Amino acid sequence: MGFSYREMEKRGYGFVVIEAHAFYKRPAFFDDELVLRTELVELKRASLSFGYGISRGEEVLVTGRTRHGCVELATGRPSRIPKEFVVRVSGDRP
Predict the structure, then answer these.
(1) Is pLDDT at 1 greater than 80 in this prediction?
(2) Residue-range domain boundaries for the chain
């Protein structure tokens, strides 16, 4: 996204997990080579959601989704996602 989570924390913001869902379709085994794919699936004023897929070759083993809320680290209170982060996350340009 063009910036690290640590950089966002230095500016006083963080994301907390609000929801997590996993749908297990097939088992994985020790020493399997797995691929994790992540994509931004929803961006709101104060939260964002990621979709996930874990696969072994062409076989999808797990799909999932998490929702994260933006908070001000100093207070722990919910916050709108700062514009500077939204532009970088969505790829939009001002």
Answers:
(1) no
(2) 5-26+33-90
Half-sphere exposure of 5 (CA within 13 A, CB side): 5
DSSP 85: H
SS3 content of the chain, % helix, strand, coil (to 5): 15, 50, 35
Give CA–CA dist 49/70, Å, rounded. Answer: 11
Q: What percent of the chain has pLDDT over 70?
A: 89
- Is domain 5-26+33-90 classified as CATH 3.10.129.10? yes
Confidence of residue 2 (pLDDT cuts 50, 70, 90): low
Question: What is the biggest distance separating any 2 CA atoms in the chain, rounded to whole angstroms?
Answer: 47
Q: Beta strand pairing status for 59-72 and 13-24? A: antiparallel
